Amino acid sequence: MTNLLKYTFLSIILAGGVSFSQNYSLYSRFGLGSIESAQSIRSAGIGGFGISDLVQDYVSTSNPAAWSSLTSTRFQFGTVLIGNTSEDASVSNYAAQAYFSGFSFGFPVSGKHGIGVSLGLLPYSSVNYDMKRSGTDSRIGSDYLQEAKGEGGLAKLYVGSSWKPFGDFRIGASLNYYFGKISYHNTVTFNDGTSLKTDFNKSYRMRGVGFDAGLITPELNTILGVEDLLQGIRLGFAVNYFNEFTSDSLFAGGNNIVIDTLNYGAGSAKVPLKLSIGASLQLNRLMRVHLDLITQSWSSYEVNGVKDPYMQDMMRIGGGFEYRVKDRDRNFDSYIYRGSVFYEKTPLVINGQSITELGASAGISFSLSPESYFDLSLQYIRKGTTESGLVKENIFRLHAGMSLGEIWFLQQER
Predict the structure, then answer these.
(1) pLDDT above 70: percentage of residues in the chain
(2) For residue 92, what are the domain limits?
(3) I need a surface site. Which of 67, 124, 169, 344 has the fewest CB within 10 A?
(4) How far apart are CA 10 and CA 180, in angstroms?
(5) Which residues contact 399 (CB under 8 A, 6 or more apart)?
(6) How many separate domains does the chain show?
(7) By mean pLDDT, which of 27-31, 123-127, 240-244, 409-413 is the weakest?
(8) Which of 214, 208, 266 shows the shortest CA–CA distance to 240?
Protein backbone atom coordinates (compact mmCIF):
# COMPACT_ATOMS: atom_id res chain seq x y z
CA MET A 1 0.00 0.00 0.00
CA THR A 2 2.87 2.38 0.79
CA ASN A 3 4.33 2.10 -2.73
CA LEU A 4 0.95 2.66 -4.37
CA LEU A 5 0.30 5.76 -2.25
CA LYS A 6 3.74 7.07 -3.14
CA TYR A 7 3.13 6.72 -6.90
CA THR A 8 -0.34 8.25 -6.55
CA PHE A 9 1.05 11.29 -4.75
CA LEU A 10 3.87 11.66 -7.29
CA SER A 11 1.46 11.60 -10.25
CA ILE A 12 -0.81 14.20 -8.67
CA ILE A 13 2.23 16.47 -8.33
CA LEU A 14 3.19 15.85 -11.96
CA ALA A 15 -0.35 16.51 -13.14
CA GLY A 16 -0.31 19.85 -11.35
CA GLY A 17 3.04 20.95 -12.73
CA VAL A 18 3.24 19.49 -16.25
CA SER A 19 1.11 20.55 -19.18
CA PHE A 20 -0.83 17.84 -20.98
CA SER A 21 -0.94 19.95 -24.14
CA GLN A 22 2.19 18.90 -25.99
CA ASN A 23 0.63 16.79 -28.75
CA TYR A 24 2.15 18.67 -31.71
CA SER A 25 0.01 18.91 -34.86
CA LEU A 26 -0.62 21.73 -37.32
CA TYR A 27 -4.25 20.58 -37.45
CA SER A 28 -4.67 21.33 -33.75
CA ARG A 29 -5.37 24.99 -34.60
CA PHE A 30 -9.00 24.07 -35.39
CA GLY A 31 -11.88 23.41 -32.98
CA LEU A 32 -10.80 22.40 -29.48
CA GLY A 33 -7.52 21.03 -30.84
CA SER A 34 -6.44 17.43 -31.30
CA ILE A 35 -8.78 15.15 -29.34
CA GLU A 36 -7.02 12.39 -27.37
CA SER A 37 -8.27 9.06 -28.70
CA ALA A 38 -6.24 6.90 -26.27
CA GLN A 39 -6.21 7.98 -22.63
CA SER A 40 -4.13 5.11 -21.25
CA ILE A 41 -1.15 3.08 -22.41
CA ARG A 42 -3.21 -0.09 -22.68
CA SER A 43 -5.80 1.80 -24.74
CA ALA A 44 -3.05 3.13 -27.02
CA GLY A 45 -1.82 -0.41 -27.65
CA ILE A 46 -5.27 -1.41 -28.96
CA GLY A 47 -5.87 1.77 -30.96
CA GLY A 48 -7.90 3.69 -28.38
CA PHE A 49 -10.67 1.11 -28.27
CA GLY A 50 -11.76 -1.71 -25.93
CA ILE A 51 -15.41 -0.70 -25.47
CA SER A 52 -16.54 -4.24 -24.62
CA ASP A 53 -13.40 -5.48 -22.84
CA LEU A 54 -13.54 -6.65 -19.23
CA VAL A 55 -10.06 -6.58 -17.69
CA GLN A 56 -9.08 -7.06 -14.07
CA ASP A 57 -5.57 -5.61 -14.25
CA TYR A 58 -6.25 -2.16 -15.79
CA VAL A 59 -8.53 0.78 -15.13
CA SER A 60 -10.53 1.15 -18.34
CA THR A 61 -10.70 4.63 -19.89
CA SER A 62 -13.09 3.49 -22.66
CA ASN A 63 -16.15 2.28 -20.76
CA PRO A 64 -16.98 2.87 -17.06
CA ALA A 65 -18.93 -0.42 -16.95
CA ALA A 66 -15.56 -2.24 -17.13
CA TRP A 67 -14.68 -1.08 -13.59
CA SER A 68 -17.05 -3.84 -12.39
CA SER A 69 -14.30 -6.39 -13.13
CA LEU A 70 -11.63 -4.81 -10.88
CA THR A 71 -10.28 -7.27 -8.29
CA SER A 72 -7.62 -5.04 -6.69
CA THR A 73 -6.90 -1.37 -6.10
CA ARG A 74 -5.19 -0.09 -9.22
CA PHE A 75 -3.23 3.01 -10.13
CA GLN A 76 -1.91 3.72 -13.62
CA PHE A 77 0.05 6.60 -15.12
CA GLY A 78 2.40 7.26 -18.01
CA THR A 79 4.26 9.57 -20.36
CA VAL A 80 4.16 10.00 -24.12
CA LEU A 81 6.96 10.87 -26.56
CA ILE A 82 5.72 12.13 -29.95
CA GLY A 83 7.65 12.61 -33.19
CA ASN A 84 5.77 14.35 -36.02
CA THR A 85 7.03 14.86 -39.57
CA SER A 86 4.75 17.32 -41.37
CA GLU A 87 5.07 18.15 -45.06
CA ASP A 88 3.27 20.09 -47.74
CA ALA A 89 3.90 20.16 -51.48
CA SER A 90 7.31 21.86 -51.09
CA VAL A 91 8.81 21.61 -47.58
CA SER A 92 8.85 19.30 -44.57
CA ASN A 93 9.42 19.80 -40.85
CA TYR A 94 10.06 17.57 -37.84
CA ALA A 95 8.99 18.24 -34.25
CA ALA A 96 9.27 16.11 -31.10
CA GLN A 97 7.51 16.56 -27.77
CA ALA A 98 7.06 14.66 -24.52
CA TYR A 99 4.27 15.03 -21.97
CA PHE A 100 2.70 13.42 -18.91
CA SER A 101 -0.43 11.53 -19.97
CA GLY A 102 -2.38 11.67 -16.73
CA PHE A 103 -3.40 9.05 -14.20
CA SER A 104 -6.34 6.83 -13.25
CA PHE A 105 -7.11 5.27 -9.88
CA GLY A 106 -9.66 2.52 -9.32
CA PHE A 107 -10.70 0.02 -6.67
CA PRO A 108 -13.37 -2.67 -6.17
CA VAL A 109 -15.99 -2.30 -3.45
CA SER A 110 -18.03 -5.45 -4.08
CA GLY A 111 -17.03 -8.18 -6.50
CA LYS A 112 -20.43 -9.89 -6.16
CA HIS A 113 -22.34 -6.76 -7.17
CA GLY A 114 -19.72 -5.44 -9.58
CA ILE A 115 -19.30 -2.19 -7.68
CA GLY A 116 -16.08 -0.48 -8.61
CA VAL A 117 -14.99 3.13 -8.17
CA SER A 118 -12.57 5.13 -10.30
CA LEU A 119 -11.24 8.68 -10.44
CA GLY A 120 -8.51 10.34 -12.45
CA LEU A 121 -7.12 13.27 -14.37
CA LEU A 122 -6.62 12.75 -18.11
CA PRO A 123 -5.90 14.90 -21.18
CA TYR A 124 -8.92 15.58 -23.39
CA SER A 125 -7.56 17.83 -26.16
CA SER A 126 -4.38 19.68 -27.06
CA VAL A 127 -3.42 22.70 -29.15
CA ASN A 128 0.25 22.88 -30.10
CA TYR A 129 1.50 24.20 -33.43
CA ASP A 130 3.98 26.72 -34.83
CA MET A 131 3.75 27.85 -38.46
CA LYS A 132 5.88 30.40 -40.34
CA ARG A 133 5.30 31.97 -43.74
CA SER A 134 7.36 34.61 -45.57
CA GLY A 135 6.25 36.97 -48.32
CA THR A 136 6.39 40.49 -49.71
CA ASP A 137 3.94 43.32 -49.01
CA SER A 138 3.69 45.30 -52.26
CA ARG A 139 2.04 48.23 -50.51
CA ILE A 140 5.15 49.10 -48.49
CA GLY A 141 7.71 47.23 -50.58
CA SER A 142 9.01 45.13 -47.72
CA ASP A 143 9.53 41.44 -47.09
CA TYR A 144 7.82 40.03 -44.00
CA LEU A 145 7.69 36.95 -41.81
CA GLN A 146 4.31 35.82 -40.47
CA GLU A 147 4.23 33.39 -37.53
CA ALA A 148 1.18 31.65 -36.04
CA LYS A 149 1.44 29.67 -32.81
CA GLY A 150 -1.05 27.88 -30.60
CA GLU A 151 -0.75 26.22 -27.22
CA GLY A 152 -2.88 24.79 -24.44
CA GLY A 153 -5.74 22.34 -24.29
CA LEU A 154 -8.38 20.79 -22.07
CA ALA A 155 -8.07 18.21 -19.29
CA LYS A 156 -10.73 15.91 -17.84
CA LEU A 157 -11.16 15.30 -14.11
CA TYR A 158 -13.57 12.42 -13.48
CA VAL A 159 -15.08 10.25 -10.75
CA GLY A 160 -17.46 7.37 -11.31
CA SER A 161 -18.66 3.90 -10.39
CA SER A 162 -19.97 0.63 -11.84
CA TRP A 163 -22.60 -1.94 -10.89
CA LYS A 164 -23.99 -5.36 -11.88
CA PRO A 165 -27.78 -4.90 -11.52
CA PHE A 166 -28.56 -8.51 -12.45
CA GLY A 167 -26.67 -11.55 -13.68
CA ASP A 168 -23.52 -10.59 -15.54
CA PHE A 169 -25.00 -7.41 -17.02
CA ARG A 170 -22.72 -4.49 -16.18
CA ILE A 171 -23.29 -0.73 -16.21
CA GLY A 172 -21.21 2.27 -15.19
CA ALA A 173 -21.16 6.06 -15.21
CA SER A 174 -18.84 8.93 -14.37
CA LEU A 175 -19.16 12.66 -13.77
CA ASN A 176 -16.56 14.70 -15.68
CA TYR A 177 -15.22 18.22 -15.25
CA TYR A 178 -13.38 19.71 -18.24
CA PHE A 179 -11.08 22.70 -17.87
CA GLY A 180 -8.14 24.37 -19.54
CA LYS A 181 -6.80 27.33 -21.49
CA ILE A 182 -6.17 27.66 -25.23
CA SER A 183 -4.06 30.52 -26.60
CA TYR A 184 -3.35 31.68 -30.15
CA HIS A 185 -0.55 34.10 -31.14
CA ASN A 186 -0.06 35.73 -34.54
CA THR A 187 2.81 38.11 -35.41
CA VAL A 188 3.99 39.83 -38.57
CA THR A 189 7.56 41.13 -38.69
CA PHE A 190 8.73 43.42 -41.53
CA ASN A 191 12.33 43.52 -42.72
CA ASP A 192 12.50 47.15 -43.85
CA GLY A 193 13.51 48.41 -40.41
CA THR A 194 10.80 51.09 -40.30
CA SER A 195 7.46 49.23 -40.28
CA LEU A 196 6.21 48.16 -36.88
CA LYS A 197 5.93 44.54 -35.83
CA THR A 198 2.24 43.66 -35.36
CA ASP A 199 0.82 41.22 -32.84
CA PHE A 200 -2.59 39.67 -32.38
CA ASN A 201 -3.39 37.36 -29.48
CA LYS A 202 -6.51 35.60 -28.32
CA SER A 203 -7.06 33.18 -25.48
CA TYR A 204 -9.94 31.16 -24.09
CA ARG A 205 -10.18 29.83 -20.54
CA MET A 206 -12.77 27.07 -20.80
CA ARG A 207 -14.65 24.88 -18.35
CA GLY A 208 -17.66 22.61 -18.39
CA VAL A 209 -19.17 19.40 -17.08
CA GLY A 210 -20.35 16.21 -18.69
CA PHE A 211 -20.87 12.54 -17.98
CA ASP A 212 -19.95 9.16 -19.42
CA ALA A 213 -22.24 6.14 -19.25
CA GLY A 214 -21.69 2.62 -20.50
CA LEU A 215 -22.82 -0.99 -20.40
CA ILE A 216 -21.27 -4.36 -21.17
CA THR A 217 -23.46 -7.37 -21.87
CA PRO A 218 -23.09 -10.87 -20.43
CA GLU A 219 -21.47 -13.44 -22.68
CA LEU A 220 -23.78 -13.97 -25.65
CA ASN A 221 -22.53 -17.36 -26.85
CA THR A 222 -25.59 -19.30 -25.64
CA ILE A 223 -28.10 -16.66 -26.73
CA LEU A 224 -26.59 -16.67 -30.24
CA GLY A 225 -26.41 -20.47 -30.30
CA VAL A 226 -22.66 -20.55 -31.02
CA GLU A 227 -21.33 -21.82 -27.68
CA ASP A 228 -19.66 -24.76 -29.46
CA LEU A 229 -17.87 -22.46 -31.92
CA LEU A 230 -17.06 -19.20 -30.14
CA GLN A 231 -16.48 -18.17 -26.53
CA GLY A 232 -16.63 -14.97 -24.54
CA ILE A 233 -18.71 -12.89 -26.98
CA ARG A 234 -19.65 -9.54 -25.42
CA LEU A 235 -21.05 -6.24 -26.66
CA GLY A 236 -20.22 -2.87 -25.15
CA PHE A 237 -21.83 0.55 -25.50
CA ALA A 238 -20.69 3.94 -24.21
CA VAL A 239 -21.97 7.50 -24.48
CA ASN A 240 -20.15 10.73 -23.65
CA TYR A 241 -22.37 13.74 -22.98
CA PHE A 242 -21.05 17.30 -22.76
CA ASN A 243 -22.99 20.13 -21.18
CA GLU A 244 -22.41 23.56 -22.70
CA PHE A 245 -18.87 24.77 -22.01
CA THR A 246 -18.31 28.32 -20.84
CA SER A 247 -15.24 30.39 -21.64
CA ASP A 248 -13.61 33.65 -20.67
CA SER A 249 -12.10 35.13 -23.83
CA LEU A 250 -9.44 37.80 -24.25
CA PHE A 251 -8.47 39.46 -27.54
CA ALA A 252 -5.46 41.76 -27.67
CA GLY A 253 -3.55 43.42 -30.49
CA GLY A 254 -0.84 45.97 -31.05
CA ASN A 255 2.73 46.47 -32.17
CA ASN A 256 6.18 46.69 -30.62
CA ILE A 257 5.30 50.07 -29.11
CA VAL A 258 1.83 49.57 -27.67
CA ILE A 259 -0.50 46.62 -26.99
CA ASP A 260 -4.21 47.17 -26.41
CA THR A 261 -6.99 44.88 -25.18
CA LEU A 262 -9.52 44.78 -28.00
CA ASN A 263 -12.19 42.67 -26.36
CA TYR A 264 -12.84 40.72 -23.19
CA GLY A 265 -15.94 38.72 -22.33
CA ALA A 266 -17.69 35.43 -21.74
CA GLY A 267 -18.56 32.88 -24.39
CA SER A 268 -19.80 29.34 -24.82
CA ALA A 269 -19.13 26.19 -26.81
CA LYS A 270 -21.42 23.24 -27.55
CA VAL A 271 -19.58 19.93 -27.87
CA PRO A 272 -21.59 17.13 -29.52
CA LEU A 273 -22.53 13.76 -28.05
CA LYS A 274 -20.07 10.91 -28.61
CA LEU A 275 -21.29 7.33 -29.16
CA SER A 276 -19.20 4.13 -29.03
CA ILE A 277 -20.04 0.49 -29.70
CA GLY A 278 -17.77 -2.53 -29.57
CA ALA A 279 -17.79 -6.30 -29.80
CA SER A 280 -15.20 -8.76 -28.52
CA LEU A 281 -14.70 -12.50 -28.30
CA GLN A 282 -12.32 -14.87 -26.59
CA LEU A 283 -10.55 -17.00 -29.21
CA ASN A 284 -8.96 -19.12 -26.49
CA ARG A 285 -8.00 -18.67 -22.86
CA LEU A 286 -5.05 -16.46 -23.84
CA MET A 287 -6.25 -14.34 -26.78
CA ARG A 288 -9.09 -11.87 -27.13
CA VAL A 289 -10.02 -9.85 -30.25
CA HIS A 290 -12.30 -6.85 -30.65
CA LEU A 291 -13.95 -4.57 -33.22
CA ASP A 292 -15.10 -1.06 -32.31
CA LEU A 293 -16.85 1.95 -33.86
CA ILE A 294 -16.91 5.51 -32.48
CA THR A 295 -18.93 8.42 -33.89
CA GLN A 296 -19.36 12.08 -32.91
CA SER A 297 -21.37 14.72 -34.76
CA TRP A 298 -18.79 17.53 -34.79
CA SER A 299 -20.71 19.26 -37.62
CA SER A 300 -23.05 20.53 -34.87
CA TYR A 301 -20.18 22.01 -32.82
CA GLU A 302 -20.90 25.66 -32.01
CA VAL A 303 -18.93 28.55 -30.55
CA ASN A 304 -21.05 31.43 -29.24
CA GLY A 305 -24.02 30.11 -31.20
CA VAL A 306 -22.13 29.90 -34.52
CA LYS A 307 -21.25 26.61 -36.18
CA ASP A 308 -17.61 26.04 -37.11
CA PRO A 309 -17.27 25.72 -40.93
CA TYR A 310 -14.16 23.56 -40.57
CA MET A 311 -15.90 20.77 -38.62
CA GLN A 312 -17.55 17.59 -39.88
CA ASP A 313 -18.92 14.40 -38.32
CA MET A 314 -16.22 12.11 -36.97
CA MET A 315 -16.11 8.32 -37.42
CA ARG A 316 -13.40 5.99 -36.11
CA ILE A 317 -13.32 2.23 -36.68
CA GLY A 318 -10.73 -0.36 -35.83
CA GLY A 319 -9.93 -3.84 -34.63
CA GLY A 320 -7.28 -5.36 -32.45
CA PHE A 321 -6.20 -8.16 -30.14
CA GLU A 322 -4.70 -8.85 -26.74
CA TYR A 323 -2.62 -11.99 -26.13
CA ARG A 324 -1.55 -13.05 -22.65
CA VAL A 325 1.44 -15.26 -21.90
CA LYS A 326 1.04 -17.18 -18.65
CA ASP A 327 3.97 -17.73 -16.31
CA ARG A 328 4.51 -21.50 -16.15
CA ASP A 329 5.59 -21.50 -12.51
CA ARG A 330 3.30 -18.78 -11.17
CA ASN A 331 -0.40 -18.23 -11.82
CA PHE A 332 -0.33 -14.81 -13.48
CA ASP A 333 0.44 -13.23 -16.86
CA SER A 334 4.14 -12.62 -17.39
CA TYR A 335 3.64 -10.75 -20.71
CA ILE A 336 0.68 -9.19 -22.49
CA TYR A 337 0.92 -8.37 -26.21
CA ARG A 338 -1.46 -5.98 -28.01
CA GLY A 339 -1.99 -4.73 -31.53
CA SER A 340 -4.55 -2.92 -33.67
CA VAL A 341 -5.25 -1.14 -36.96
CA PHE A 342 -7.67 1.76 -37.28
CA TYR A 343 -9.11 4.38 -39.60
CA GLU A 344 -10.62 7.73 -38.68
CA LYS A 345 -12.50 10.40 -40.55
CA THR A 346 -11.44 13.23 -38.27
CA PRO A 347 -13.70 16.17 -37.29
CA LEU A 348 -11.86 18.43 -39.77
CA VAL A 349 -12.73 19.44 -43.32
CA ILE A 350 -10.35 22.07 -44.77
CA ASN A 351 -10.28 23.53 -48.26
CA GLY A 352 -13.13 21.16 -49.08
CA GLN A 353 -10.91 18.17 -48.18
CA SER A 354 -11.91 15.72 -45.44
CA ILE A 355 -8.94 15.08 -43.14
CA THR A 356 -8.47 11.38 -42.39
CA GLU A 357 -6.16 9.21 -40.29
CA LEU A 358 -4.86 5.71 -40.92
CA GLY A 359 -2.84 4.02 -38.21
CA ALA A 360 -1.55 0.95 -36.44
CA SER A 361 -0.38 0.30 -32.90
CA ALA A 362 1.45 -2.36 -30.92
CA GLY A 363 2.02 -2.77 -27.20
CA ILE A 364 3.52 -5.01 -24.55
CA SER A 365 3.23 -5.25 -20.77
CA PHE A 366 5.93 -6.79 -18.56
CA SER A 367 4.87 -8.27 -15.25
CA LEU A 368 6.51 -6.67 -12.20
CA SER A 369 4.44 -8.75 -9.75
CA PRO A 370 1.16 -10.69 -9.89
CA GLU A 371 -0.75 -7.36 -9.78
CA SER A 372 1.59 -4.82 -11.44
CA TYR A 373 2.90 -4.19 -14.95
CA PHE A 374 5.29 -1.95 -16.85
CA ASP A 375 3.59 -0.95 -20.12
CA LEU A 376 4.87 0.14 -23.53
CA SER A 377 2.99 0.94 -26.72
CA LEU A 378 3.93 2.42 -30.09
CA GLN A 379 1.49 4.08 -32.49
CA TYR A 380 1.98 5.18 -36.08
CA ILE A 381 -0.57 7.55 -37.64
CA ARG A 382 -0.67 9.04 -41.12
CA LYS A 383 -2.86 12.12 -41.11
CA GLY A 384 -3.95 14.51 -43.85
CA THR A 385 -2.71 14.98 -47.41
CA THR A 386 -0.52 17.33 -49.43
CA GLU A 387 -3.35 17.93 -51.90
CA SER A 388 -5.44 21.14 -51.94
CA GLY A 389 -2.66 23.09 -50.24
CA LEU A 390 -2.83 20.95 -47.09
CA VAL A 391 -0.31 19.19 -44.87
CA LYS A 392 0.41 15.49 -44.40
CA GLU A 393 1.65 14.35 -41.01
CA ASN A 394 3.47 11.14 -40.10
CA ILE A 395 3.15 10.72 -36.35
CA PHE A 396 4.90 8.27 -34.03
CA ARG A 397 3.79 8.04 -30.40
CA LEU A 398 5.72 6.06 -27.80
CA HIS A 399 3.75 5.51 -24.58
CA ALA A 400 5.43 4.25 -21.40
CA GLY A 401 4.10 3.85 -17.88
CA MET A 402 3.00 1.56 -15.10
CA SER A 403 -0.18 -0.10 -13.89
CA LEU A 404 0.17 -0.96 -10.21
CA GLY A 405 -2.16 -3.10 -8.14
CA GLU A 406 -2.65 -3.93 -4.46
CA ILE A 407 -5.57 -5.28 -2.43
CA TRP A 408 -6.97 -2.50 -0.25
CA PHE A 409 -10.72 -2.23 0.10
CA LEU A 410 -12.28 -5.45 -1.19
CA GLN A 411 -13.90 -7.52 1.54
CA GLN A 412 -14.96 -11.12 1.56
CA GLU A 413 -18.52 -11.63 0.29
CA ARG A 414 -20.71 -13.37 2.84
Answers:
(1) 86
(2) 2-406
(3) 169
(4) 21
(5) 38, 41, 44, 45, 78, 79, 80, 101, 363, 375, 376, 377, 378, 379
(6) 1
(7) 409-413
(8) 214
